[in-house]
Amino acid sequence: MIRSTSLCLTLILVAACSNAPAPVAAPELPMSEEAPSTVIGSWHWLGTVGSAPVSALEPARYAVEIQDSGSALIQADCNRGRSDYGVDPAGAALFGAIGLTKMGCAADSQDRQFLAQLRAARTAISAKHWLRMSLADGESHAVFARDPQARLRHYRCTAGQGYALAMAPAGALLWIDGEFHALALSKGEPVGNYRGGRFEVRVGEAATTLLIDGKALTGCQQLD
Predict the structure, then answer these.
(1) Is residue 4 included in any domain, yes or no?
(2) CA 35/CA 37 separation, integer angstroms
(3) Which of 47, 176, 187, 209 has its CA at a distance of 20 to 30 angstroms from the CA of residue 154?
């Protein structure tokens, strides 16, 4: 049984920006405990990272609105529904049974994948503009954003290394080597540059480049 209690989630502690003219590496935005109210509201599904990566073609078609009453309103493409949302005695985040309308959606719908992610959710961690839910396989994470215009992209580089990057005008969320890193939009630099700790992302018209400690990953190709 699910009891509608508040989740213990995490907060991005935003470091102050430097006024110095020379570019300074932005501190990585760490995840720590935040007030449960920060998860309340609408989140749009961007896709999944991990063992079976997928990107939502149109995140605006897939959303979960978590309410402080302990319920969640769900938009699965052309269908609408609701579920209980709370924590089990072990402290894991869970959705209850999901009741939905039964309209037939378009052929490109990803509603089944989206609903599978919700049913498999085990924990939830928020990071300012982002929400990620760890899934039952222990390796995958569903990624959500406040902004329906945000997008999730997966990249494969030489030597088998890869990463995933969620981007929105307000910032970016990097997933690499099994860990998430929140990046801030670089001020005073071209739009599409993000920084955080050891990481920098440069988004150009032809390609996206990830730099780690100032060194670019080479041979990277976007998979979706």
Answers:
(1) no
(2) 5
(3) 187
Is residue 33 situated within a structural domain? yes
- pLDDT of the residue at 169: 86
The domain total for the chain is: 1
Q: Left, alpha or beta for 219 (phi > 0: left; psi -120 to 50: alpha)?
A: left
Residue the block writes with tokens 């569903």: 142
- Classify residue 92: in a domain, yes or no: yes
Q: Which of 66, 78, 57, 19 is nearest to 39 (CA)?
A: 66
User: What is the tens place of the pLDDT at every residue in 4-62?
Assistant: 433 333 333 233 333 333 444 444 333 333 444 478 889 999 999 998 899 999 999 99
Q: How many CB atoms lie within 10 A of CB 224?
A: 14
Record the pTM.
0.80
Residue 132 counted as domain residue: yes
pLDDT-flagged residues of the chain (< 50): 1-37
Distances (CA, A) of 204 to 30, 192, 207, 219: 27, 7, 5, 15
CATH number at residue 201: 2.40.128.270
CB 27 within 8 A of CB 17: no
Check residue 132 and give its pLDDT.
93
